[in-house]
């Protein structure tokens, strides 16, 4: 069992919270200093200085490198195996990662095509072959590292630490999801769309938490998160998003927010959970999501 296996290790429980708390404090400081600052103007200035690809690397590289910090901390300081941080299985199931990745990548591509076909006036073609290929190379390397960092930090280290301290599946599931959502408060999308978008970020955290707990490992969450950020960055960019990229399309419409939030949270994510549950034969939902964790 993914959460129960923390009892195999004798690390001080405090060690599980050092990196998550430090990261969240950095996010809070960033949010405080960004209040009253036009984040889009800051991003535009950075792009003028180092270019679109350069700005992308500078923004994402710290998070990408953070994955190796998490692995080092868990392996050397906590003396816990990376496999046990990833899954309850004897070895990491890469088939699960790739299936989740390609399923969500396919859905994202189809939804983007439909949106473009229905309202082509909302998009302009942004495709520049040389710049796109360079960005593609950077994105394939950096984005999966960035998304994996967030998964290992929130659905891995923090979730297992909470399981060890609280012995509550519900708290271990809910708190990382809420903190994952709050981590995005400084994103320019929040300014553009409004606080309602926090429902999407927290809802996505809840969805990823359900994947992790019900499937007894991070594999499905790792694949989904990588596909969500990578394919999204390659397909569409907008002037008001955190990542300005050499994507294929550029969204020039004014976001309403409500539809983009309601569709994935209340329609698509439940459908995905149903698909995964049938494929991987998930059972005992109530016990796994809200029950007590036996660490004896």
Automatic annotation (TrEMBL):
<keyword id="KW-0472">Membrane</keyword>
<feature type="transmembrane region" description="Helical">
    <location>
        <begin position="170"/>
        <end position="187"/>
    </location>
</feature>
<feature type="transmembrane region" description="Helical">
    <location>
        <begin position="220"/>
        <end position="241"/>
    </location>
</feature>
<keyword id="KW-0645">Protease</keyword>
<dbReference type="Pfam" id="PF02517">
    <property type="entry name" value="Rce1-like"/>
</dbReference>
<keyword id="KW-0378">Hydrolase</keyword>
<feature type="transmembrane region" description="Helical">
    <location>
        <begin position="193"/>
        <end position="213"/>
    </location>
</feature>
<dbReference type="InterPro" id="IPR003675">
    <property type="entry name" value="Rce1/LyrA-like_dom"/>
</dbReference>
<feature type="transmembrane region" description="Helical">
    <location>
        <begin position="14"/>
        <end position="33"/>
    </location>
</feature>
<dbReference type="GO" id="GO:0008237">
    <property type="term" value="F:metallopeptidase activity"/>
</dbReference>
<protein>
    <submittedName>
        <fullName>CPBP family intramembrane metalloprotease</fullName>
    </submittedName>
</protein>
<dbReference type="GO" id="GO:0006508">
    <property type="term" value="P:proteolysis"/>
</dbReference>
<dbReference type="GO" id="GO:0004175">
    <property type="term" value="F:endopeptidase activity"/>
</dbReference>
<keyword id="KW-0812">Transmembrane</keyword>
<feature type="domain" description="CAAX prenyl protease 2/Lysostaphin resistance protein A-like">
    <location>
        <begin position="133"/>
        <end position="231"/>
    </location>
</feature>
<feature type="transmembrane region" description="Helical">
    <location>
        <begin position="97"/>
        <end position="118"/>
    </location>
</feature>
<keyword id="KW-0482">Metalloprotease</keyword>
<dbReference type="GO" id="GO:0080120">
    <property type="term" value="P:CAAX-box protein maturation"/>
</dbReference>
<feature type="transmembrane region" description="Helical">
    <location>
        <begin position="261"/>
        <end position="280"/>
    </location>
</feature>
<feature type="transmembrane region" description="Helical">
    <location>
        <begin position="130"/>
        <end position="149"/>
    </location>
</feature>
<keyword id="KW-1133">Transmembrane helix</keyword>
<feature type="transmembrane region" description="Helical">
    <location>
        <begin position="53"/>
        <end position="76"/>
    </location>
</feature>
């Amino acid at each position: 069992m993914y959460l129960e296996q923390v009892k195999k290790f004798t690390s001080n429980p405090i060690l599980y919270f050092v990196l998550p708390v430090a990261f969240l404090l950095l996010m809070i400081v960033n949010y405080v200093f960004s209040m009253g600052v036009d984040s889009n103007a800051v991003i535009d200035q950075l792009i003028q200085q180092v270019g679109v690809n350069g700005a992308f690397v500078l923004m994402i590289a710290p998070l990408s490198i953070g994955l190796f910090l998490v692995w080092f901390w868990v392996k050397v300081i906590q003396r816990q195996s990376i496999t046990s941080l990833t899954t309850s299985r004897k070895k990491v199931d890469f088939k699960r990662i790739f299936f989740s990745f390609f399923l969500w990548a396919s859905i994202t591509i189809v939804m983007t095509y439909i949106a473009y076909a229905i309202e082509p006036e909302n998009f302009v073609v942004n495709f520049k072959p040389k710049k796109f290929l360079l960005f593609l190379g950077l994105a394939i390397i950096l984005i999966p590292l960035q998304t994996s960092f967030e998964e290992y930090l929130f659905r891995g280290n923090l979730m297992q630490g909470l399981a060890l301290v609280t012995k509550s599946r519900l708290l271990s599931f809910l708190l990382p999801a809420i903190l994952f959502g709050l981590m995005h408060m400084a994103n320019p999308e929040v300014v553009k769309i409004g606080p309602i978008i926090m429902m999407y970020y927290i809802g996505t955290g809840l969805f990823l938490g359900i994947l992790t707990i019900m499937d007894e490992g991070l594999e499905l969450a790792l694949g989904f998160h990588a596909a969500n950020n990578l394919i999204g960055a390659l397909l569409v960019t907008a002037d008001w998003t955190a990542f300005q990229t050499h994507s294929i399309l550029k969204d020039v419409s004014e976001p309403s927010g409500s539809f983009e939030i309601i569709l994935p949270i209340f329609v698509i994510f439940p459908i995905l959970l149903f698909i995964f549950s049938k494929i991987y034969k998930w059972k005992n939902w109530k016990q796994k999501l809200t029950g007590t964790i036996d660490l004896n």
